[in-house]
Write a structure and sequence with these properties.
With about 80 residues, this protein is an alpha+beta fold. It has 2 helices and 4 strands, in the order E-E-E-E-H-H. It has one domain. It has a 4-stranded antiparallel beta sheet, covered by helices on one side. It is globular.
Length: about 80
Amino acid sequence: MKIVERLQLTKDSFIMVIKIGDKGYLMSSSNNKTEILKELTEEELLKAEQNSKQYYGTNFNNSSNFVTNLIRKNHKK
């Protein structure tokens, strides 16, 4: 398992892009609960990995925007 992206929402809650084997997931995590919000397509996972490598430690807004776009895309369905 690899955490590709992680966005802190509150002190104890996060939205994450996780890679397990060849699969990617958009997940929420808090002290009380961890939940899969969406299974990512290969394209979405690849974009997350590229985004993470390109902006790791340099630009919070790009990670935030990427995860926010995944959430919005999932919410529209």
